[in-house]
Amino acid sequence: MKIYKNYNITVIGAGHVGLVTAACFSELGNKVICVDNDKNKISKLNKLIMPFYEPDLEKLVLKNFKKRLFFSNSLDYGIRNSQIIFIAVGTPPKEDGSSDLSAIEIISREIALKLNSYKLIVEKSTVPVQTGQKIKETILRYKKNNVEFDIASNPEFLREGSAVYDFFNPDRIVVGTDSKKAKEILKNLYAPLKSKIIITDINTAEIIKHASNSFLAAKISFINAVARICDLAGANVKDVAYALGLDKRIGKYFLDAGIGYGGFCFPKDLEAFLYISKKLGYEFGLLSEVKKINETQKLYFVEKIKEKLWILKDKKIAILGLSFKPNTDDLRFAPSIDIINYLLKEGASISAYDPKSNEAAKKIFKDNIYFAKNIYDAVKNSDCICFLTEWEEFKKIDFKKIKKLLKTPIIADGRNMFNRKELEFLGFEYIGIGT
Ligand code: UGA
Fold it and tell me: N or C, which end of the chain has less CB nearby within 10 Å?
């Protein structure tokens, strides 16, 4: 059996990226300290209470906790006791679309002041190109001794809902660094995953991340635009996407038309890429259009419902699925939020159910909508059901039972999950997107 080299690692940030990264590196045999300045979050993690739902994450945390995985509030402790420091803190969007990098700047200064032995500082957070350069300049400016350090960019490509799986089965690992030593360390660290490792300079690695997310978002907006044309022309976007995807140059993934992309990555990363491109001197008009198509897609769906129900005032609409995608309780930039707000503005009453994010949604909608206990409770006496997230649970629905519970059997399928002909055969009126 091949023995892999293990390292002492600190991951700064216990969010979706940081916590998954920390747990997975500990599973590979490394000693990992996961640091966060949110005292409440760390105290809960030390009691093994997860801050969010992510399949398989809890299992890994339970298995490695206090053997190889530790949680702390002390950045100082984390920095001093590790050779590799991953920065995985949030880079939230500012009003103008740029990323707020203040947390990264503070951490860079802290690292500079606490540099007690060689450190490899790796940016994992999604950051604008040239951030690596800025981290290096900041550490050089504030450090008080001659201790060496290196910087690397190692963008993550984990998807929420399958982040643990993605960590262990990457399509590629990107490492951007100018240092031979850093390259060797990261190659050793990732060796157990047996994945292709792409080595570039730091700026290039940062652009790879920008370009990956923007390209995926562009694929979704492209198929959503085609879906609208399919609606106008009486064609079927599912068949179009299937045929397109069989062309290897296009590929079959991310061609599912629907209510558009959400989540904390695509909307904000696209905005950040638009901003940085402009700042560097290039107007990325293509991305502006991608964003526009995505923004109007939600209203387009509501308009289709309106077309069917005519007047929404006093109609009861059941919303199935709130999270921005299945297998997560994350509601950040979820299309469901805008769609529900549009429907409420039109005077509809809403009864909603999501397998994981009802609790989080209560904080947003308070008592303006009814939160149902299950699917059947949600649809009772409704005029229409809207599917907004393609949870597995919804695919097993007993539509005969549902039909009896509804006031009028209308289904608005925001994720094109179902077959129009099958539902029409059961007596439903079906609203899809481009199908
Ligand atoms: C995305 C990328 O897929 C990851 O590679 C990346 O690491 C991550 O952002 C990040 O930058 O942190 P994520 O936002 O978790 O991951 O989710 P995706 O699976 O990419 O889905 C994003 C949105 O697109 C969801 O709302 C989903 O419903 C929507 N989508 C996806 C479609 O509308 N159609 C599709 O065909 C695929």
Answer: N
